[in-house]
Amino acid sequence: MQPLYITSIDDPRIDVFRDVRDADLRGRDDLFMAESELVLRRLLNVPSRIHSIFLSPRRFEMLRGELAHVPPSIPIYVADIRLMSEITGFHIHRGVLAAGRRLSPAQLMPAAVLPGAIEQAPDPQVILVAEGITNVDNM
Q: Quick one: how far is CA 53 from the chain centroid?
């Protein structure tokens, strides 16, 4: 795992992270943005969903162990926290941002997400669906 250091706001390699807005955190170009160490750690469990990772140097060092398992095809960009904020258009106070691949509508159907769970459950089940959540802190 070799990080790619970003030193210019104009570097085209990080275009996916450029001018991120709340709507982008919900998704653009079949991607979603994951902001926070906790969310990135969850995303690391499913590498096929990761498009790219954007970290501050401090967070890169903190996550180095987990990032060692990221396939080499997934770019890991590292930039100064101030430059990250300039690129994204908002203050990145956690120093962690990742672009992930959204699931298709078919992959999000209850039967695909919970195959057999409802039919096989011994007791009645309750499923909560939260749509349009853009800030995990609000959960």
A: 7
Mean pLDDT in order along the chain per 10 residues (139 residues): 92 90 61 88 93 96 94 96 91 88 81 70 74 69
Cα separation, 30 vs 35, whole angstroms: 17
- What is the end-to-end Cα distance of the chain in Å, rounded? 33
What digits encode the pLDDT tens for the residues 32-71?
A: 888 889 999 999 999 999 999 999 999 999 999 999 999 9
Structure tokens that stand for 21 in this block:
């807005």
Q: In the beta sheet, which residues pair with residue 101?
A: 31
**Do residues 6 and 77 make contact, with C-beta atoms less than 8 angstroms apart?**
yes
Rounded CA separation 28/25 (Å): 8
Amino acid at the residue 89: G
The H or E element that residue 85 is part of is helix 81-88
Lookup result for tokens 């160490």: 37
Which of 49, 53, 35 has its CA nearest to residue 107? 49
- The residue among 98, 39, 48 whose CA lies nearest residue 69 is 48
- Coil, strand, or helix at residue 48? helix
